[in-house]
């Protein structure tokens, strides 16, 4: 039985690789990577708008859409945030950033909806030849306060994350995260 399952999984993997080569959505998903090093090439407002639109296309519980998106292109703000946020040092070299912000008064699960929006943003950036990386704000009160203060985000809004964006510097390779043993069929 286990041998048959492994054979099925292997066939599914090969089929998936074939489909991925023919399916731009799957290709983008599997090519996405966390980019932390950027060139000085500017990111157009058109590309940033396209990326935010992709974020807004994410699924959301009961269609509450508890999100807001703050786009940053101001070098001074990005440099200051790169100094104040321990895991966003790459922001000083990024050409733009997007802060995904949620409204807990619209939805108790704002952070889940905003996480789905964040994934769409990362995939959209990848599909446009841009690099991006998810840097954490929520649930760290200190990081949330740093971002909220620097960007004058009003209550009750909370920043989920800050995403530095730019053109990748040098070749970047995605990590292969497929682990066959983590896929279960019908039962654990």
Describe the model.
By secondary structure, this protein is an alpha+beta fold. It has two domains: 2-29; 36-166, NADH Oxidase (3-Layer(aba) Sandwich). Helices cover 43% and strands 14% of the residues. The chain has six helices and five strands, in the order αααβαβαββαβ. It has helices at 2-22, 24-31, 45-56, 75-84, 110-127, 141-151; strands spanning 67-72, 96-102, 131-132, 135-136, 158-166. Strands 1, 2, 3, 4 and 5 form a five-stranded antiparallel β-sheet that branches. The longest helix has 21 residues, at 2-22. The mean pLDDT is 93.
List keywords for this structure.
single chain, 188 residues, alpha+beta, NADH Oxidase, 2 domains, five-stranded antiparallel β-sheet
In short:
With 188 residues, the chain is of the alpha+beta class. Helices cover 43% and strands 14% of the residues. Strands 1, 2, 3, 4 and 5 form a 5-stranded antiparallel sheet that branches.
Which band does the percent of strand residues land in?
A: 5-15%
- Uncertain runs are none
Report helical residue fraction: 40-55%
Q: Which descriptor suits the 3D outline? A: globular
Structural class: alpha+beta
CATH architecture of the largest domain: 3-Layer(aba) Sandwich
How many alpha or pi helices? 6
- What is the radius of gyration? 19 Å
Question: Domains counted in the coordinates: how many?
Answer: 2
Under CATH, the homologous superfamily of the largest domain reads NADH Oxidase
Order of helices and strands: HHHEHEHEEHE
CATH class of the largest domain: Alpha Beta
Task: Provide mean pLDDT, rounded.
Answer: 93
CATH topology of the largest domain: NADH Oxidase
- How many angstroms does the end-to-end distance come to? 14 Å
Q: What is the tally of beta strands? A: 5
Biggest beta-sheet profile? 5 strands, antiparallel
């Amino acid at each position: 039985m286990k041998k048959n399952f492994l054979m099925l999984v292997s066939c599914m993997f090969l089929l998936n690789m074939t489909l991925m080569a023919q399916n731009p959505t799957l290709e983008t998903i599997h090519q996405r990577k966390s980019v932390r090093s950027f060139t000085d090439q500017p990111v157009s407002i058109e590309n940033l708008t396209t990326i935010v639109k992709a974020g807004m296309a994410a699924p959301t519980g009961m269609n509450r859409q508890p999100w807001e998106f703050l786009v940053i292109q101001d070098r001074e703000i990005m440099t200051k945030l790169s100094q104040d946020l321990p895991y966003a040092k790459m922001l000083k070299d990024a050409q733009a950033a997007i802060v995904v912000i949620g409204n807990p008064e619209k939805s108790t699960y704002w952070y889940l909806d905003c996480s789905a929006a964040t994934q769409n943003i990362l995939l959209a950036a990848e599909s446009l030849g841009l690099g991006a990386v998810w840097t954490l704000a929520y649930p760290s009160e200190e990081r949330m306060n740093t971002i909220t203060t620097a960007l004058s985000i009003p209550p009750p809004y909370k920043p989920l994350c800050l995403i530095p964006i730019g053109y990748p510097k040098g070749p970047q390779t995605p990590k292969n995260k497929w682990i066959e043993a983590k896929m279960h069929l019908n039962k654990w």
